[in-house]
Amino acid sequence: MGTRNIVWHDASVTRTERNKKNEHESFVLWFTGLSGSGKSTLANAVSRKLFEDNKQTYVLDGDNVRHGLNSDLGFSPEDRKENIRRIGETAKLFVDSGQIVSTAFISPYREDRQQVRDLLSEGEFIEVFVQCSLDTCEKRDPKGLYKKARNGEIPSFTGISSPYEEPEKPEVIVNTEEYTIEEAADLLISYLKGKHLL
What we know:
This protein is of the alpha/beta class and 198 residues long.
């Protein structure tokens, strides 16, 4: 099976037209960090603020996407790679539709995050490193996953038995030990306004 007989069709409504109508740019806020760092909570807080400011916004959350689109994938390095590849392609479609899409995935490997960045145009991929120490993430443990990982019930758990590669040059670093979620969301909104994306 190949793409030899598949032809790309240009849309009748362009992304530029959608952005003009929406009165904002479309882009990806890629939240990455350890489990329990606050990625999903922060992504949703930012999305709520954007929505209340009449922006077109959507959150792609790691757990939610694994219930449907990626329900066939496990947590091996290969499956993690495919998980992020699919999310990248999905996020690209959202950007084309004029949305501000926030993705909340551990996305532990730099190479995979770079591949998503390469899918998008300059300035469309904003990597947000949700920084939080392993110790604090483990104390929070909102889903009880660290406890299971320490007991050997979850193989290949990021931060315990599987690596997490911190971003080297993220656009934004937000430390959720230093800032409340509300403060962190405000920081991100200020960043976006400063870049004239809103």
